[in-house]
């Protein structure tokens, strides 16, 4: 009877991998999950997408090494993107780590722990993709779960290391996704979040055609009523008319789309190795808004990419002010070794990057504040995440259909009746009566 402790860093796609690893370990000789200090096995699934993520990973490794030094009988395993990216050099850098396991070798963690000698690096297996039969223990709240429909990425953005770590896109079979969705519902899940690096390209690697609309139509027909389907993430050039019509016609698919643009200037987009026809992209987004009433559009912008002058940055500001995305995130360009962007001239100074980041977020805060104010008096679907709150028995916390877990805001719901039968995962129609820049308040019924 052995115990394990698990730390999961990075994105929701990483989280699914972590859930698979935990499921596999619990199917073996590990029976309980506990703290790193008390565990026989300490495992960490890592991220190294940008410098801040790498720093967080290394900080956690240092912390876990300190715990192992106090009890050398513990087994310490580092998994995921960090060992896949940095490979063989890590065993000498961190000799206390017993096993380094990459993004394709983690399904074999039980075999590695049982049959291999410590202080080894495993990053050589063929590309991996889980399916509905794979062991997996959900770590999210019981009413929502992530369902990974693709792995890897065929885009070659000049700033991004993901294709070199995760490989080319691999799409799952529609039958497998449908079966897993039904399994999740049987476990009590009410919100299924379809994820991948670019789910709009789902199916291209198998049939040569974009099949996300076909997948969504299948799920829309086969899943029971009262279920939310949320989509993360879509590149602008993967959105076609069939997909738009499918989302517009569905009562289950959340009218919320995350479409990362990264920038709006043709030269910067070209140097990013992304589609540089920003006018076409904005036309697609406007088509989405017209075709899907009540749509929440989220995007991500990057500031400080090489060659971004004041004039180019101001063009981004102008587009953000005029288009008024309901949701917008921003991050600062971080040079990554072995990516083409590091070789570009006219790198932007760190102080300038930070100032531009602050300006974008200030502008978006005002846009979000105005948008939320416009929602007052409207009735929106809300999923309950938590409640009733301590000492506030009539107050629940939730999210509107326009808010994804972890990245967007919350809504505080005052419940006037049926208080004793409500629980997390219930989907209600809530009337908005108060707003701030990032959160809302409402009344039910």
UniProtKB/TrEMBL annotation:
Task: Tell me what reaction this enzyme catalyses.
Answer: L-aspartate(89)-[ribosomal protein uS12]-hydrogen + (sulfur carrier)-SH + AH2 + 2 S-adenosyl-L-methionine = 3-methylsulfanyl-L-aspartate(89)-[ribosomal protein uS12]-hydrogen + (sulfur carrier)-H + 5'-deoxyadenosine + L-methionine + A + S-adenosyl-L-homocysteine + 2 H(+)
Identify the main location.
Answer: cytoplasm
**Which residues make up the binding site for [4Fe-4S] cluster 2?**
153, 157, 160
Q: How is the cofactor bound?
A: Binds 2 [4Fe-4S] clusters. One cluster is coordinated with 3 cysteines and an exchangeable S-adenosyl-L-methionine.
Subcellular location per UniProt equals: Cytoplasm
Q: GO CC annotations?
A: cytosol; ribosome
Provide the residue positions that the database annotates as binding [4Fe-4S] cluster 1: 11, 47, 81
Gene Ontology molecular-function annotations? 4 iron, 4 sulfur cluster binding; aspartic acid methylthiotransferase activity; metal ion binding; protein methylthiotransferase activity
* Taxonomic superkingdom: Bacteria
Residue ranges occupied by any MTTase N-terminal domain in the UniProt entry: 2-118
Kindly list the cofactors needed.
[4Fe-4S] cluster
**EC number of this enzyme:** 2.8.4.4
Check the record and name the InterPro entries matching this protein: Elp3/MiaA/NifB-like_rSAM, Methylthiotransferase, Methylthiotransferase_CS, Methylthiotransferase_N, Methylthiotransferase_N_sf, NA-bd_OB-fold, Ribosomal_uS12_MeSTrfase_RimO, rSAM
Which Pfam families does the annotation name? Radical_SAM, TRAM_2, UPF0004
Q: Which Gene Ontology BP annotations are present?
A: tRNA modification
Give every Radical SAM core domain span: 139-370
Record keywords, A-Z:
4Fe-4S, Cytoplasm, Iron, Iron-sulfur, Metal-binding, Ribonucleoprotein, Ribosomal protein, S-adenosyl-L-methionine, Transferase
- Protein family according to the UniProt entry: Belongs to the methylthiotransferase family. RimO subfamily.
Q: Could you tell me what this protein does?
A: Catalyzes the methylthiolation of an aspartic acid residue of ribosomal protein uS12.
Its recorded name reads Ribosomal protein uS12 methylthiotransferase RimO
Q: Which organism is it from?
A: Candidatus Atribacter allofermentans
Organismal lineage: Bacteria, Pseudomonadati, Atribacterota, Atribacteria, Atribacterales
